[in-house]
Amino acid sequence: MAIAQTVEEMEWELGGKLKRLRLNKNLDQQTLAARAGVSVRALRNLESGEGSTLKTLLSVIRALGRESWLQTVAPVPTINPATFTTRAATRLRASSPATKRSAAQRLPSAQSLTASGPTRPRKRNDERDQ
């Protein structure tokens, strides 16, 4: 189970990851700051977890070639369980009560389900015993 982190701890951890990535790519702060179009001080603040702007973060991520990280922030679900039902149709918008009534009218009637003609009603258990 993951332990909840404070915002400051998350900033520090993210800054550390960015710094390790920069060092793995053998870049110094001046070079990365120039590629990202930010000041060296802004990059230093980001890497040390002292706070930064969203623009600085995105610029540095792009300069490091890690735009794919952003795809994992809030992925759009690709599987909808409703699509696996037999009568599911692609929804275009939420339905109104009038639409729900008309959908009920489109359901097959009980007579069309029994193609062999009318059937005798089943007897209840208490009628069989007599």
From TrEMBL:
Keywords: Plasmid. Residues 87-99 have a biased composition (Low complexity). Residues 87-130 are annotated as: Disordered. This is HTH cro/C1-type domain-containing protein. Residues 108-117 have a biased composition (Polar residues). It comes from the Bacteria. Residues 18-70 form the HTH cro/C1-type domain.
